[in-house]
Amino acid sequence: MKSQTIVLLVATIVICLAAHGLSVGSPTNSRCKCVNVHSRFIPPKYYRHIDIFPQGSFCRKLEIVITLKNGKHVCVNPLIPWVKKVISLLTEKSELTPSNSEASSTE
Predict the structure, then answer these.
(1) What global pTM score does this model have?
(2) Quick check: 78 and 84 in contact, CB under 8 A?
(3) Range of 16's domain?
(4) Is 71 left (phi over 0), alpha (psi -120 to 50) or beta?
(5) Is residue 107 part of a domain?
(6) pLDDT by residue (tens digit) across 5-24?
(7) Which H or E run contains 62?
């Protein structure tokens, strides 16, 4: 009787852990990417690219990660004026630049 209880308990734990793992998704998307954020200005000539991660169910805050030309990733505070300006310029630039499909369809 005692061994049946242990087997049932272990089976329940295994099922619960499996169900939890399936509902969480991939471990890289299950938490915020930025632990520390920087406010100091970074000149755009050092940027390789910028990633913007909107708030969602896994991280409750907007995250902006700048990858520098030296490969280093820097999280910046999205509320700082210079970061807002850079994002605004990028958004403006992407709206003005036609996509490849639009350019080829007009020719």
Answers:
(1) 0.60
(2) yes
(3) 1-27
(4) left
(5) no
(6) 776 666 667 675 555 554 34
(7) none
Distances (CA, A) of 1 to 5, 11, 13, 15: 7, 16, 19, 21
Q: What tens digit of pLDDT does each residue of 32-74 get?
A: 999 899 999 999 999 999 999 998 888 999 999 999 999 999 9
Tokens for 27, please give them. 């471990």
| Cα torsion angle, 71, 38, 51, 20, sign | positive
Q: To the nearest 5 percent, what fractions of the chain are helix, strand and coil?
A: 50, 15, 35
CA dihedral 45, 81, 31, 47 (to 10 degrees): 0
Structure tokens at 101: 């499909």
d(CA 33, CA 58): 10
23 part of a folded domain = yes
